[in-house]
């Protein structure tokens, strides 16, 4: 069972409202806010009018099909690209205005962006020394990401998964309040995914803002609590995973009963749909399983099955993004 405390539904205004005590001190300085963010490359609009908020204390997944504009948004967040319109800030400040960015925002946009001839240790040491970070932190992080035993090996020979770990270590070097990671799970084996999930969950529980992208719902479902879903540069859905699932479509309740006809009539009401898929079987949306049970009881209808069926995360993702897939399976661009 997930034993994480639930501090939910905090953001109500421009900044999150009441936070868990752990997050309160960090909250305002580590909220990511995107307002009407737009990026055009010539004729191509990569990001269009994106507004969202990423709160501290939870992992937020940034989800969208290939080419949706995730990397472009993250590049603008960390000052590598300039918005055509709108803005994106951390704690109300643009990344480029932060006095000591590495200590405030940890970034991994491309895990391969490492000098291949440098060892993992020297890669981190160079970053630490140029940012006045003590050498001991390098050792600590190498152990923390599981690269302690290969610290002396050249990063050029690292697998994709090892590179991701090194990238995460570099992002954490300044002990930042905010983490921005582009596709951090990409290339990790199942053990690596589990490790990353635990690490990011722990960092969020410490009150940090953890913002990570993926084009795979199944990956983010394991890690994220909040989601921002975009397609072709535009906002498609945002909120908690539950909110996003609910926005994709109603869940249905399956009822198996020898009294299907009578119960179907009794269940009718505003916003209720009752479909009979086979004899003795009803698929009901617009009523909860509990409501259906109570109505059946009042009607004296016998129930053989009463089960709720929500959309799976993958189904929800397909539904939300179905009109926004830039590169479809036939390989043709829309
Ligand atoms: N420098 C650029 N010049 C022109 N078009 C660009 C540039 N950078 C990105 N694009 C286009 O902007 C769109 C968004 O790209 P982006 O890399 O942000 O998407 P993404 O969601 O990160 O995709 P993926 O999951 O494949 O990494 C794409 O159509 C891409 O081709």
Q: Can you tell me about this structure?
A:
This protein is α/β, with parallel strands linked by helices and 334 residues long. The protein folds into 2 domains: 32-245, P-loop containing nucleotide triphosphate hydrolases (Rossmann fold, 3-Layer(aba) Sandwich), CATH 3.40.50.300; 249-319, Alpha-Beta Plaits. It is 32% helix and 24% strand. It is built from 12 helices and 13 strands. It has helices at 21-24, 70-77, 101-104, 120-129, 135-144, 160-172, 190-205, 217-223, 241-248, 260-267, 289-299, 313-321, and strands spanning 32-41, 44-54, 59-63, 85-90, 105-108, 178-182, 209-214, 226-231, 234-240, 252-256, 273-278, 281-285, 305-309. The strands form 3 sheets. A 6-stranded mixed sheet has the order 5-6-7-3-8-9, sandwiched between helices. Helix 4 (120-129) packs across helix 5 (135-144) and helix 5 crosses helix 6 (160-172). The model is unreliable at 1-26 and 329-334 (pLDDT under 50). Bound molecules: adenosine-5'-triphosphate. Residues 41, 44, 46, 64, 66-72, 215, 326 line the site of adenosine-5'-triphosphate.
């Amino acid at each position: 069972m997930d034993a994480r405390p639930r501090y939910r539904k905090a953001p109500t205004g421009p900044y999150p409202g009441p936070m868990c005590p752990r997050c309160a001190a960090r909250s305002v300085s580590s909220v990511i806010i995107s307002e009407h963010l737009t990026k055009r490359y010539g004729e191509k609009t990569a990001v269009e009018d994106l507004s969202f908020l990423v709160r501290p204390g939870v992992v937020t997944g940034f989800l969208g099909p290939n080419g949706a504009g995730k990397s472009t948004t993250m590049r603008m967040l960390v000052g590598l690209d300039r918005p055509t319109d709108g803005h994106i800030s951390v704690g109300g400040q643009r990344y480029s205005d932060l006095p000591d960015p590495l200590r405030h925002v940890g970034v991994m946009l491309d895990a391969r962006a490492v000098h291949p001839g440098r060892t993992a240790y020297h890669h981190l040491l160079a970053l630490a020394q140029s940012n006045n970070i003590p050498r001991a932190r390098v050792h600590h992080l190498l152990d923390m990401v599981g690269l302690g035993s290969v610290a002396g090996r050249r990063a050029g020979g690292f697998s994709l998964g090892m590179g991701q770990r090194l990238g995460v270590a570099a992002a954490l070097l300044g002990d930042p309040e905010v983490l921005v990671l582009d596709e951090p799970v990409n290339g990790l084996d199942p053990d690596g995914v589990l490790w990353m999930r635990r690490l990011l969950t722990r960092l969020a529980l410490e009150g940090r803002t953890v913002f990570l992208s993926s084009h795979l719902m199944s990956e983010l479902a394991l890690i994220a609590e909040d989601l921002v879903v975009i397609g072709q540069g535009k906002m498609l859905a945002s909120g908690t995973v539950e909110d996003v699932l609910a926005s994709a479509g109603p869940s249905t309740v399956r009822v198996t009963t020898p009294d299907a006809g009578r119960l179907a009539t009794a269940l009718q009401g505003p916003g209720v749909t009752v479909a009979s898929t086979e004899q003795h079987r009803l698929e009901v949306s617009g009523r909860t399983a509990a409501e259906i049970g109570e109505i059946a009881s009042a009607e004296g209808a016998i129930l053989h099955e009463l089960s709720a069926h929500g959309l799976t995360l993958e189904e929800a993702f397909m539904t939300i993004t179905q009109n926004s897939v830039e590169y479809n399976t036939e390989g043709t661009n829309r």
